[in-house]
Specification:
Layout: H1 2-23, E1 49-55, E2 61-67, E3 83-88, E4 100-105, H2 123-136, E5 156-161, E6 173-178, E7 186-192, E8 212-217, E9 221-223, E10 229-231, H3 235-238
Antiparallel strand pairs: 1-2, 3-4, 5-6, 7-8, 9-10
């Protein structure tokens, strides 16, 4: 009986240990912190030196502090159009071993070629479909100025008048009318004395070879100091 009791106690203690092992929480594995990449942005060089990125022997990019007067860099290296300059680590006998520039071919990334769309429609159906699209979306009508097709005589100009029609849009009607000058006592001349107009207190100069079309003073009128056309007899009075 005593032996049986001790055996039961041993079995119970073993099962309790197994239960405790199962119930015990699992500890998470430690996560290694991700260190930021060391670049020239977080490297402080000493005075009279500058930071450059170079390719180490293991293929990784690392920062390096070079003297400012050091000329053997990519800034002073001219590569071809299809090459790029890279600072590369070298092995030397005496220190310091500065990285040297090296021209390497650029990596050309070509965009994927899109396949042409296949159209299973036959030629006759394509034509009918194009006709339907042209009916649904007609081309815009560019308005035409009716005066562009009318040639008026000298001293007249084309003027558009509103027209009344049954079905809009109603195109205006062109008409040739005499040119009206903006100032009083003026008339339109196709060849007027533009460079030598008649002025008050000055003799008329003949310069027919140098004329231009425009509005000029009528016969018996001349320009005063204000640029108005006044009668010749009143020229002296209006200019006092």
């Amino acid at each position: 009986m005593i032996i049986l009791f001790l055996a039961c106690l041993a079995i119970g203690s073993a099962s309790g240990q197994e239960d405790a092992a199962i119930i015990a929480p699992i500890k998470p594995l430690p996560v290694k912190p991700v260190l930021p990449a060391i670049t020239c942005a977080n490297v402080l060089c000493i005075m009279n030196s500058t930071c450059v990125m170079y390719e180490a022997l293991n293929g990784k990019m690392k920062p390096y502090c070079l003297p400012i007067d050091y000329k053997n860099t990519c800034a002073y290296t001219k590569c071809k159009c299809f090459e790029k300059c890279v600072m590369v680590e070298v092995t030397c006998v005496t220190t310091p071993c500065y990285p040297v520039p090296e021209c390497r071919p650029r990596r050309i990334v070509r965009p994927p070629i899109k396949p042409l769309p296949t159209d299973p429609l036959p030629i006759g159906r394509k034509k009918r479909q194009a006709d339907d699209l042209s009916l649904d979306n007609p081309l815009p009508v560019v308005p035409v100025n009716p005066c562009d097709t009318v040639k008026c005589a000298a001293g007249t100009q084309c003027v558009l008048h509103d027209a009344v029609c049954r079905r809009p849009p109603c195109n205006p009607i062109p008409s040739c009318e005499p040119i009206r000058c903006p100032e009083k006592n003026q008339e339109w001349l196709e060849c007027g004395p533009f460079f030598c107009p008649k002025r008050c207190g000055q003799e008329q100069v003949m310069c027919k070879a140098m004329c231009r079309p425009g509005c000029f003073c009528k016969k018996g009128f001349c320009l005063n100091k204000s640029g108005k056309c006044v009668p010749d007899k009143n020229c002296g009075i209006l200019n006092e």
